[in-house]
Amino acid sequence: AYPPPPPAPPPDPVRNVSLTLSPVHLLAPVFELTGEVRVVNHFGVAAIGGYGSLTVEGERFKVWELGGQLLAYPMNPFHGLHLGAELLYVKVDADDLQSGTVRGSGNGLAVGPLVGYKVLTGGGFTFVAQGGVQYIAARAEASDGAGNSAEADDQKFIALLNLNLGYSF
């Protein structure tokens, strides 16, 4: 007689929500948080929000961003390979450019497809890597106290790279 087979390992815990942040954005420093919810087993919806500042050529800008993602997981429910799309609105603003004589602001909208991979550990630690391409449309304007103003528009394609760390529960 053969001994009985070992018991099956317990199933992985079901995770329905992932909260992650982008460590790369913290270098600016911009705090960007993404919250993703499993809508059904192989589909998630994510909200993205960020706030912070950015220094360009010695000038400091306030930054905020708001957006979302639609993500399909073709192989595993809520983890592993995923395909999707991202829409992100970004606003930058500064009241004290050139020692307080110039005010400037800009905003942009980025949209595009992505492919990614989400690693979920048994303890809930989450790592997300995503890449893709985005079409951006941006507008900037500046004015000074003497009534002078300037504005510019730009549209182009850029690379998308997201590297996020967090927790899923």
Please provide a written account of the structure.
2% of the residues lie in helices and 71% in strands. It contains one helix and eight strands; from the N terminus they run βββββαβββ. β7 and β8 (149-168) form a beta hairpin. Strands 1-2-3-4-5-6-7-8 form an eight-stranded antiparallel beta barrel.
Layout of helices and strands:
Blueprint: E1 17-21, E2 30-40, E3 43-56, E4 59-72, E5 80-96, H1 97-100, E6 102-120, E7 125-144, E8 149-168
Antiparallel strand pairs: 1-2, 1-8, 2-3, 3-4, 4-5, 5-6, 6-7, 7-8
Give a concise summary.
This protein has 169 residues and is mostly beta strands.
Question: Helix and strand string, N-terminal first?
Answer: EEEEEHEEE
| Backbone structural class | mainly beta
Net shape: elongated
Radius of gyration, Cα only, in angstroms? 21 Å
The biggest beta sheet is recorded as:
8 strands, antiparallel, barrel
